Amino acid sequence: MAEVLVLVDHTDGAVKKTSAELLTIARRIGTPSAVFIGSQVEAARPRLAQFGAEKVYVVDNADVTDYLVAPLAEALEAVVKQAGDVAAVLVPTSGTNKEAAARLAVKLESGLITDAQDVQPGDDGIVVTQTAFAGGYTLQGVVTQGTPIITVKPNTTPPQASQAGAQVVPVELTVSDTAKSAKITEVQEKKKSGRPELTEAAIVVSGGRGTGGDFSPVESFADVLGAAVGASRAAVDAGWYPHSNQVGQTGKQVSPQLYVACGISGAIQHRAGMQTSKTIVAVNKDEEAPIFELVDFGVVGDLFNVLPQATEAVKKA
Ligand code: FAD
């Protein structure tokens, strides 16, 4: 079977859950191989082997991490060319990765589908499910030209272990001068909250304008659930929460098992980032709030009353 290349998302060799999800998807459509960018492949190998990577292509070239996006596309192109028989390239959805995937598609003259929620083998090719128009439509498509390049949203598929060899295959790369057009000069480490990564979390509790700027009940509820904290754009624009926590069309797209919207009206741009969540709960004091059209469970009430009670109830459970 042809190889399915999975770009590994990692921090210093610590492989993120999305990579296990993408390797699980890759096994449905071909032979999974990981693409590892960086020098810490030995730290990553056991987890990549655990989730079925037969090979791990390693691009250990500082230019790829020192410059913005373009060298990453060149690295992926080099791996595709070295691998030869490639059925698809799967990339975890993020701003950077989507740009790299688009550049790769141009280089390979291939079709690209972004923000996939499901990827399955089909009679006409690899069938990709995605939503369009801020979640108003669900559509299925296949790439009809070249090697399908697909960016996949996190939390779309439960990772399933399947031990494989994870044979390391070095890939030589000389990054072109044109790709080295924008250098990263400083990286500021994010403050550690101790909470899970927003796009990877199984549970997300988000706060909106209804918090009035006091996120403490939202954070306390998130902490008893082991959840990540999200925010609406209104809350972010008001300076109450960082943009890195914004959920929606111009923020992050999340698809957790459980999404709890607190004091959020449910504007279409917010829905665009969360409506593929498996179970949606809202707490809002306005029973007419549009978010209630979307929810599995709704609580009409003041979040400052409801959330502390819910937090205590979870603690006792
Ligand atoms: P509001 O709409 O003001 O809603 C606040 C809600 O809180 C109300 O329903 C109210 O009943 C409820 N409430 C008030 N007090 C309480 C209380 N004590 N307890 C319980 N409920 C209470 N928005 C995003 O979120 N993400 C995006 O990525 C995004 N991108 C955008 C892109 C564009 C181009 C544009 C034009 C807009 C975008 N927006 C985005 C903004 C979006 O249109 C809304 O303005 C925003 O989502 C509203 O945030 P909110 O629900 O927190 O505030």
Chemical compounds bound to the protein: flavin-adenine dinucleotide
Number of strands: 17
User: Strands of the largest sheet, in order across it?
Assistant: 7-11-6-1-4-5-12
The run of helices and strands is: EEEHEHEHHEHEEEEEEEHEHEHEEH
Structural class comes to alpha/beta
Structure characterization notes:
The mean pLDDT is 95. The protein is globular. The protein has 317 residues and is α/β, with parallel strands linked by helices. A seven-stranded parallel beta sheet has the order 7-11-6-1-4-5-12, with helices on both faces. Strands 14-13-15-16-17 form a five-stranded parallel beta sheet. It has helices at 17-29, 41-50, 62-66, 70-83, 95-108, 216-225, 233-237, 268-271, 303-316; strands spanning 3-7, 10-11, 14-15, 31-37, 55-59, 86-92, 112-116, 118-122, 125-132, 137-141, 149-152, 167-170, 203-207, 228-231, 258-262, 279-284, 297-300. The chain contains nine helices and 17 strands. The relative contact order is 0.12. The structure holds flavin-adenine dinucleotide. Flavin-adenine dinucleotide binds at residues 208-210, 232-235, 246-251, 263-265, 267, 269-270, 273, 283-286, 289, 302-304.
